[in-house]
Amino acid sequence: MVNYGNYQYNYIGDTMEYKKIDLDYNSLDPYIDDKTLYLHYNAHYNGYTDNLNKYLKKHNYKYDKSPVYLAENIDILPMEDRDEILYNLGGYLNHSLYFYELTNVKKDIPVPFLNIINKYFTSYDNFKKTFIDMAMEVKGSGYTFLVIDKNNNLRIINTSNQDTPYYYGFTPIMTIDVWEHSYYLKHYNKRRDYLEDIFNIIDYDKVYKLYLDNIKTK
């Protein structure tokens, strides 16, 4: 099971269902406006969470596995409603990571993680530029991720709609949501401005922790 600190795949009381993560912040203004944050968290994220639980309960799922386990072992999912489960499972996982890694507290990137970024991308500035350039290439709706591949290397990848990197054998440790609902109220059609802004509120302590928790020791 992937360990995400407070980004845990817990269950809710007797109802036994996946739940949204709790936010560590009330506002991300001026980088993300409060109305967008509210709607994104309480409408979009909530919708994927509720629909995932609805389809799983329809098939009498016992909630004895983490959502990550389901994403990495999709063959165990029922054929009936599998597409709907995968879509909402991806939406649940992607939004959980997105909201988990944001912060309204100014933080420096941890030096050990900065050294890792420099190893793979030559510098933090180049990492940021590469990430933003990749995110600008997403056609329509999707996400850009920093992932760990099967060889323990860091890569930046895009996925479409609500596909999660787990479906393709990658472990995500950072993401930016580039669906228009993530930024349109404040940034309109200026996706690059949104991307530049969001890099001011990424909690690299959490990204680094995910890296350490999920890197395979040799």
Number of strands: 3
- The averaged pLDDT comes out at 92
Q: Note the overall shape.
A: globular
- CATH fold annotation of the largest domain: minor pseudopilin epsh fold
- Describe the sheet with the most strands: 3 strands, antiparallel
Gyration radius (Cα, Å) is 17 Å
Query: What is the element string, with H for helices and E for strands?
Result: HHHHHEEEHHH
Task: Itemize the secondary structure elements and their pairings.
Layout: H1 34-58, H2 67-72, H3 82-100, H4 111-121, H5 124-136, E1 142-148, E2 154-160, E3 171-177, H6 184-187, H7 191-198, H8 204-214
Antiparallel strand pairs: 1-2, 1-3
Textual characterization of the structure:
With 218 residues, this protein is mainly alpha-helical. It has 2 domains: 34-100, Fe,Mn superoxide dismutase (SOD) domain (Helix Hairpins, Orthogonal Bundle), CATH 1.10.287.990; 111-214, Iron/manganese superoxide dismutase, C-terminal domain (minor pseudopilin epsh fold). It is built from 8 helices and 3 strands, in the order αααααβββααα. A 3-stranded antiparallel β-sheet has the order 2-1-3, with helices on both faces. A hairpin with a 5-residue loop joins strand 1 (142-148) and strand 2. Helix 1 runs antiparallel to helix 3 and helix 4 (111-121) crosses helix 5. It is globular, with a radius of gyration of 17 Å.
